[in-house]
Amino acid sequence: MLRSPTGEATLTDAIQVEDLEKTYPPAVRAVQGVSFAVHPGEIFGFLGPNGAGKTTTVSMLTTLLRPTKGRAAVAGLDVAEQPAEVRREIGLVFQDSTADGELTGRENMILAGGLFGMRPSECRGRIDELLGRMDLTEAADRRVKGYSGGMKRRLELAVAMVHTPKILFLDEPTIGLDPQGRAGFWRYIKELRQEQQVTIFMTTHYLDEVENLCDRIAIIDHGRIIASGTNDSLKERVGGDLVELRVPADGADLTETLGSVPGVREVSREANIYRVKCPRAEGLVSALVKACDLAGVTVEGVTVQRPSIDRVFLELTGKAYREEGYDDGRAAQASVFHTRGRGGR
Amino acid sequence: MLVELTALIRREYLRWIRAPMWIVAGLMTPILYLLLFGQAFNLGALVGNVPGGPVVLSRALWGAPDYFSYFAVGMVGLVAVTSALFAGTGVIFDKQLGIMQRTIATPVRRSTIFASILIFRGFLVVLPIFIVLGLALTFAHIPGLVGLTVTQPVGADGVAEVVLAIFILAIAFTSLFLAFGFLFARVESYFGVVNLLNLPILFTSNALYPVGTEPAWLQNITAYNPISLAVDVMRETFFGTTYYPHPVLVYLLGLLAWAAALVAVALLLAARALATK
Predict the structure, then answer these.
(1) pLDDT digits (tens, 9 = 90+) for A205-226
(2) Largest CA distance in chain A
(3) Cis peptide leading into A173, omega within 30 of 0?
(4) Which residues of A76-114 are buried (b: 16+ CB within 10 A; e: fewer)?
(5) Residue B49: its pLDDT value, please?
(6) Binning pLDDT at 50, 70 and 90, where does residue A124 land?
(7) CB pair distance less than 8 Å for B106 and A96
(8) Which CATH architecture best describes the domain A239-305?
(9) Yes or no: domain A15-234 corresponds to CATH 1.10.3720.10
(10) A-B interface: how many C-beta pairs under 8 angstroms?
(11) CATH 3.40.50.300-classified regions of chain A
């Protein structure tokens, strides 16, 4: 159990991680000393590109991997010293479906209950409730191999919840789902959190997932946490909105002119595009366009970007967020062709 | 612990019962052996009319009245190996599909996981053995068919010894192949090794042919083969003690030693495969 500096056990946090490290022999440092805390009842997002160390971290928190260094407490229990007790308190949804395709949804859930020492008669009510919650009542007695991708994901959620865990771990839960399926899955997660009072720790490499679903996030890259906090607090870091002005290629330099407009924080230029950072773009756009006009340059196009997590990533690492090989994170959202490669390790 | 064990075995059972082709094919092979090979291969007819032939034959067949009776008991060993050699495949598939990972992430004891697999896979080995043995005994009472003829009265203790030998043999071979299932990550590697083992195990046993004509070195190996030990228990019980150097109990103990060793190896590899890395 983790101890606070005064030596008392601190049970307030659902998950406490201190300086956690995992090195795969001979010297692959998959996770290099991460620390964070997850509060009870929140949805905590662990965001990072593939290979950043997300799955390795989850595996350590769920007792499937032994930490090389550092400490982690889940539900107040040390993962290295009390793995069996930790397993009682957690539910798991893996990247790939782990339900047995030859069994029906209900049979898979009865099996899951059985693994936690519940007789089929003891968990029948709970199973019916969860099947209903996940809209799987109709499919409950069909074999899982015939389920759609979305149904399989929902069944994984239901299976993970049979024993009423305190903390639910989701490792890339929406990988392989189309955008519609993902949005639907978020709704189920939110409802589950609300009704079951469960703390949710999820890894993801989708930016929109953390923006839509998570209360707080930590961003991990190359085995280190590079930022953490609420979505808003992270966005504040990147300094508000970004206005992009496109001008004709042959115009005079406007960097100084734009920089002198009240409310502008920073101006940069890339070929015929000016990027203007400002706390709020509202009311400023027309002033910027007017300033260009006065300088004799006609603005051809204006775009306004709200602060986003991918901009946070860009600011912190100096490189665009990689989402499954796309340099532009937003582009990946439109693609449904995600490879089912195992991220992490 | 019993709840967890039942849940795990129930899953294996449901998977099995839903693949009927698998079951039919598994049971048909030994039955075809009995019906075709066993009926056709009549050693007795070759020597039967020569003066003194029956005595020679009886000695060669270690007391069995005919080749079919000799061979039908040996079939127990053959069926044990051929059904057990699939035992490890389930483990490999579970590892590949992440089902093993999910199971490990629950509070279920590792020994319970192992026990559930051994019990169910052992059942899949024992089942065809009893079917084959029952069929062979039935054949003896069907006109026109050769069957397994028991030449001496078998009491309750005899039956118990035969049943015990079958169970211990099944546990031994199931453990052997489970060990490879826990060891290998891919089915290809698994079957590579299993196919390599399969024939030497059978051919260094007394299951299929009379061992008296073998060279001495081979006879020495044969005597300690687990199949031979189980088969000796049954033949001595069915055909009398005349040709057997040891009482049934000695063979049973030898068999038990094999089973204990193989279970230990399988447990060790299972513990490694199910451990936190």
Answers:
(1) 888 888 889 999 999 988 999 8
(2) 80
(3) no
(4) bbbbeebbebbbbbbbbbbbebbbbebbbbbbbbbbbbb
(5) 67
(6) very high
(7) no
(8) 2-Layer Sandwich (3.30)
(9) no
(10) 73
(11) 15-234
